[in-house]
Amino acid sequence: MNQQEFISQLQEALSRLPESERQDIVADYQEYFRDGLAAGRSEADIAAGLGDPRQLARELTARHHIARWESRKSVGNLLAVVGAIAGLGVLNFLLAIPFLFYLWLLTMAALAATGILIGGVVLFGTLACNELFGWPAMHETRDMRAVWSAFEQGGPVGNIHIRGSRGEKVDVVRDASSGKTSINIQSSDGTVSLERNASDVTGQLRIEDKEGQVNIDALDWGFSRKGAWIASVLMLLLGGGGLFLCYLLARWTWRGLLAYGRYQLGILDKARGLDG
């Protein structure tokens, strides 16, 4: 291969680089050929020492993208570095596939953590404003244990029985001996039964109609303002911690990718030096 063929293939392979940088690279290799010819070497010998111009262009492209990434970190530059390193060899290309999947997972995790953090900030801020200024107005969901308060004060046992004209029944009953409280609603369409023992933190719900039956044996009685405060703090900690972890993983990934790219280029430079 003579100088003209080598330079022509090199220019074609460098077509993705900016024109000014491509011209600088071509000028450097033209000067390299002139120096070699002045030293008594042939064009074919010089070209053979430089290796395949297409492979050389891939290495130069990788160096270009690594330099761009170091000067300006962005998603586009990062993907360009991954693509350039993948072009250095088959093994690098195969490694790039799981690496891109890892980047996708890291991005999704960062977005999820950001969403949780924003939700925590909004919830915490809303609760704080309501506590300090009474705005925005909030209708707190009362603890459902209040439903049973009339039957759990230790006073006289109160039972309520309501009957409708079409056979509807509503019974609210508390058993003084066991402390069990129940609400039963029955109509022609079905039955709803809600009950709680005195020692239970949760209750049981039964819904039955002509088509089937639903049983819920661990019914939570409500979500209090205290629970909202706890949830907001947990969201802040989870979202902030997750985002910080994603940031650390991203930094380690960037450094590892650049180190691997430089390592690969160093191996190629060493091999070219031995060939020359």
TrEMBL record:
Membrane-spanning residues: 78-104, 110-135, 228-250
Entry keyword set: Membrane, Transmembrane, Transmembrane helix
Protein name in the entry: DUF1700 domain-containing protein
The organism's taxonomic lineage, starting at the top: Bacteria, Pseudomonadati, Pseudomonadota, Betaproteobacteria, Neisseriales
